[in-house]
Amino acid sequence: MSKIIDLRVEFTINPLGLDEPKPRFSWIFMTAIRGNSQKAYRIVVGSLNNITKDSGDVWDSGIVESDDNIVEYKGLPLKSYTRYYWKVKVWDKEGKEYSSDIAWFEAGVIEPKDWTWIGGGQLMRKEFVIDKEVEEARVYISGLGYYELRINGNRVGDKALDPPWSEYTKTVYYSVYDVTKLIRKGVNATGVILGRGRFGQRFGSVKYYGEPRATVMLRVKLIDGSLVEINTDENWKCLQSGPIISDDIYLGFRYDARLELKGWDLPGFDDSSWMSCSKLPPIGKLRSSATIPATKVMAILKPRDHLNPATGIHVFDFGQNITGWVRVKVKGGIEGSEIRVRYAELLNPDGTLNTLDLRGAESTDVFILRGEEVEILEPRFTFHGFRYVEITGYPGTPSMDDVEAEVIHADLEPIGSFVSSNNLLNSIHRITLWSLKGNLMNGVETDCPQRDERMGWLGDAWLSSDSAVLNFNMIRYYEKFIKDIIESQKGDGSISDVAPPYWEIYPADPAWGTALIYIPWALYVYYNDKRILENSYDAMKKWWNYLNSMTKDGILYFNKYGDWVPPGRVRSVEHCPPEIISTWILYRDTKLLSRIAKILKKDTEAELFEEKAKQILEAFNRNFLSEVSMSHYSTMGYYSTYTSPDGSKVKFGGSQACNALPLVEDMVPKEALEQVVKSLVKSVEVDWDKHLNVGIIGAKYVPEALVRYGYVDLAYDTLTQESYPSYGYMIKEGATTLWERWEKLTRSGMNSHNHHMFGSVDNWLYKYVAGLEVLEPGFKKVLIKPWLYKRLSHASASVRSIRGLVSVEWELRNSVFKLKATIPSFAEIHLPKISEKVEVLESGSIISEKTPGILSIKEGSDWIIVEASSGNYDFEVRSVKGR
């Protein structure tokens, strides 16, 4: 059976409050017929009445012969606050017609609007009268830094920390809620609680924007068709100080329940003592967050253990390092008594919290009780990274039922999965997912969620971006993050190491700033997202020009971090000279810009970048590729020459990262290729006893280089070690998320136990263990090439791509290799020749080019290469004994 599924607008199902004037429509044509595919489509957009008749009164694309399933709107200008309905028809290769269900999207504020910002209080409220029955109601709101919206005593929405972070002087995000069920005929009340978030944070060198503020627009459509609109203005009432004593991302939340004002968010509350709110000047442009995955409470965890290291100190272990907070139930508390909740990733040997790695982050929530029979303690406007929680001041002894952790992260759609016969690989996958989730929140990808940092470091982001994209639907999240980077860009083209630039660290290290080019490219590869290339191209060029202006004879010496955090150190010139990394990054950026320019049909610029890449490559090899004599042998690799204080010359480099980087970019001259590979292999296999000696950049590329040049088991061995330094060592030492360092560090300093920057390993698992890789943008064509390892019997992975499910499942048992694959479009499948002579079966029959869905079959020295079209396949490769 064939059908059209997964209708989306801006990659979101039925978005409410969309403000994109030319939204992208997407769908999946799912077919059970091998080789069948979409040949043409027709999209209609309009009113519900017309769409049910297959008529588009707003846009009718007409029948378009194309297999595209992401199409930009080209109809009449969209109108604010209007709900549009749409559907798509598809014709397959045989000309058969299929029709989708009806989907919708509702426009937010598209035409220009003057938003009114008000401030002056922690609490804001407004009463209003609705004199007729309500047909529908929407509220459009932004509150900086965070807000909680309430209508008639009810909390609105399920977003935990809203709006997303941004460079507030450029862009501020608003949310839209359907509040039809909350607005009633008669007197109504709306209230807003404000928190500081990033906007109003006062902490060290963190950028401060101003005091909390809000803008609200409530639109109520009545049954007679009339409209009531309520906006924030000076007629709203503000209470400067409420029960929230303080709130801070790093320090925590302090709350005095005795100061609660019951009924303040209900009609009839006496607010005569409240002040009128103050009108404030506008800041950044307001944009809808309708398609940006919001931060929400995504899971609830109960404690796994209850420790009592001293009288009155209760420590709860949740068994998993997470991001969020805890909710505590208190019974029989005394009015005015104080309960403190502290958070930590680590414990001291005596069972008390070890908070040394939090640095200046107090990570403490304090609650002063109201004295009611039962009180539920839960913070607002803050978050913590933790596994352990300490509770003091609790009346009596809390039980494990009285405490639960709320796990927060962006509401990203899970799309990928991986599993194998090696439980260590499965554990690496698991801790990578937890680290990604724990740092994908607030609309950015932070480095860590626990200490006094939590910044959107660009290096961390791009290094784990492939892993993130394979596991989650990241397109709109990363598009927003790239916008943050662009909005941080200065007139000279420089960008900050972090985005949004809450720490203004200009200019970015080249290996961090490359995120501006690498992540848009990744979105193009995985989603066929040409719009992000169009929107980012000028900013990419400005950044490239900035870096290029600092080169000397083709070499970029500017660098700040190098191959960050190799074993035993933070950075090391001797390990891998920074100019090698910076120049390698510049070369790759230049090559990518050439490819992007070609995609955007800027052929002249593409040729210029291609020529520049050749010049950088020539300078790279001329300056760094050299033969170095050791005590008992000589080696070829990439080194940089330095002058010692005595005037002698010394060469630094030749490390695993220094040699792997040019190998994966095909930069090594043919005549030196064998020797450079040998140097890499010797370092990994002999010098480091099958361990990685790399930082975060080398961790991404050394295992890839080993596989590409035939050392598959060596790559596998490095990633399945359990001794230091390795991922397995982290897990053996109790890691439930990726560490910032290879070492287990428990003192103060740079030693986060939830850092995703080593998360590139998960991409390696999908690509080189399961054997799944994208060949043509948007998964239009995939490569299925499972590498066989001596100590691995089976593996599988799947990704729900924009074209449909892509999956591979393989096993090697008893000299029989089996592979099952699901292909949404086209695939090049490499089946390993497990012996000199093999036979290949598909669904139990000998394969041939007449097999349904099979386009071609070629035999190589190590692989049987099968080209296949869409469908489900079941291959077997069997050894054939010589005749």
TrEMBL record:
Catalytic activity: Hydrolysis of terminal non-reducing alpha-L-rhamnose residues in alpha-L-rhamnosides
Domain Bacterial alpha-L-rhamnosidase N-terminal: 132-288
GO BP of this protein: carbohydrate metabolic process
Enzyme Commission numbers on file: 3.2.1.40
Alpha-L-rhamnosidase C-terminal domain segment(s): 771-841
Protein name (record): alpha-L-rhamnosidase
Keyword entries, A-Z: Hydrolase
Keyword ATP-binding attached: no
Signal peptide: none
GO MF, one example: alpha-L-rhamnosidase activity
Coiled coil feature spans: none
Location of the Alpha-L-rhamnosidase concanavalin-like domain: 312-409
A Pfam family that the UniProt record links to this protein: Bac_rhamnosid6H
Domain Alpha-L-rhamnosidase six-hairpin glycosidase: 415-769
Superkingdom of this protein's organism: Archaea
InterPro entries named among the record's database cross-references: 6-hairpin_glycosidase_sf, 6hp_glycosidase-like_sf, Alpha_rhamnosid, Bac_rhamnosid6H, Bac_rhamnosid_C, Bac_rhamnosid_N, Ig-like_fold, Rhamnosid_concanavalin
